[in-house]
Amino acid sequence: MSFSSFKLLDSSKPILVFGRDGQVGKALQVYLKNLKIPAVFLGRDECDFASEDAIIQMLNRYQPQVIINAAAYTNVDKAESERQLAFAVNAKAPQVMAHYITNVVHGVLLHYSTDYVFADTKTTAYIETDSVGPADQLCIYGQSKLAGEQAIEEVFNLTYNSGHDGHHDTFSRYFILRTSWAYGDGDNFIRTMLHLAGERDQLKVVADQVGAPTSAEWLAEVGIQIARSRVESGIYHVVPDGETSWHGLAVFAIETAATVCKGIELKSKNILPIPAADYVLPAKRPYNSRLSNIKLKKALSQIIFAGQYPKWQEQVEAYVKEYVKASLKN
Ligand SMILES: NC(=O)c1ccc[n+]([C@@H]2O[C@H](COP(=O)([O-])OP(=O)(O)OC[C@H]3O[C@@H](n4cnc5c(N)ncnc54)[C@H](OP(=O)(O)O)[C@@H]3O)[C@@H](O)[C@H]2O)c1
């Protein structure tokens, strides 16, 4: 299979990005602007996913060949009491996009998903073909994101595997990029820890949930590179190398911040590890958020990043230093 840059994209059609104001959406804005790739970015104010008609209207207006869905209902705890809205945003909206894109020649649907589709059925890293759920063991956010993944795959399967009369070489592709513990320009765990480190003498942080912190900037880059390549449709786990716990991440981020900012006095010994059972939240979180990135590495090795796949520490260090320096300026 050839992975050379996908020449079949129609440059007269803009890329349509949903989720303009989210962490990944903002990173996509920066990345596409740097590459001078024309794109239309829509926020909730222009297109509220609570309304299916609003999505259809925007698709008809812009007629994109590439759709990037970085929008999602991400308030994991609130989703427990807003099931209907979480499903409208995380499941119905991607289904509508999949229907649209399967009617486009050489279309691409790039959709972001999550480790929350897994319910601690393993203690090692999940691969893309591992069984998801079971749904009744997932929180509502996880269930709705899983339903979104399944809706996309179902639309593509029904369109292309059941008597479709189109030609194989005109088919559209989809990419579901599952990630974990994302951080970028927005509220996230790392920023919360850095702020608390400036205010408190002691922190208690969960130490028995494990995953890989993933930079939104990198998620944008990987997404665009995959969308422009000839990589096959499917699910890809997009996480850097390595793993840590929330406690490990807090210690690393705060120690890194202390190297560039004198105001942070909190010492690692005062960041105390606690079990998740001691920090009860409305939504159930996975203990095991490990995602195997072997499939992604194979795909990316043909396009970019040859020999320089990132480690989570490198990404977090760069992020924290940049964030602290920017905060000090303001
Ligand atoms: N953050 C994580 O730790 C994490 C981990 C794993 C996977 N992911 C996945 O990665 C993707 C990007 O996440 P992120 O961190 O960038 O999320 P985010 O910062 O919370 O951004 C989500 C965006 O979706 C928009 N949105 C929410 N409800 C909407 C609605 N009804 N209609 C239209 N737009 C709506 C939000 O709009 P407003 O700005 O108006 O609120 C927000 O801009 C999502 O698919 C998420 O599930 C995230």
N-C termini distance: 50 Å
The major β-sheet equals: 6 strands, parallel
Portion in beta strands: 5-15%
Instruction: Give the neighbour order of strands across the main sheet.
Output: 2-1-3-4-5-10
- Helicity, as a percent range: 25-40%
Q: How many β-strand stretches?
A: 12
Q: Provide the succession of SSEs.
A: EHEHEHEHEEHEEEHEEHEHH
Number of helices: 9
Secondary-structure-based class equals alpha/beta
Q: What is the strand and helix layout of this fold?
A:
Elements: E1 15-18, H1 23-34, E2 39-42, H2 52-62, E3 66-69, H3 83-101, E4 108-114, H4 140-161, E5 173-179, E6 182-183, H5 189-199, E7 203-206, E8 210-211, E9 214-215, H6 216-227, E10 234-237, E11 244-245, H7 246-260, E12 271-274, H8 294-301, H9 312-329
Parallel strand pairs: 1-2, 1-3, 3-4, 4-5, 5-10, 6-9, 7-12
Antiparallel strand pairs: 8-11
Helix pairs in contact: 1-6, 2-3, 3-4, 5-7, 7-9
This protein binds NADP nicotinamide-adenine-dinucleotide phosphate.
Structure description:
The chain contains nine helices and twelve strands. By secondary structure, the chain is α/β, with parallel strands linked by helices. The chain has helices at 23-34, 52-62, 83-101, 140-161, 189-199, 216-227, 246-260, 294-301, 312-329; strands at residues 15-18, 39-42, 66-69, 108-114, 173-179, 182-183, 203-206, 210-211, 214-215, 234-237, 244-245, 271-274. Helix 1 (23-34) packs across helix 6 (216-227), helix 3 (83-101) runs parallel beside helix 4 (140-161) and helix 7 (246-260) packs across helix 9 (312-329). The strands form four sheets. Strands 2-1-3-4-5-10 form a six-stranded parallel β-sheet, sandwiched between helices. Helix 4 (140-161) links the parallel strand 4 and strand 5 (173-179). The radius of gyration is 20 Å and the shape is globular. Bound molecules: NADP nicotinamide-adenine-dinucleotide phosphate. NADP nicotinamide-adenine-dinucleotide phosphate (NAP) binds at residues 19, 21-25, 43-44, 47-50, 70-74, 89, 112, 114, 145, 179-182, 186, 216.
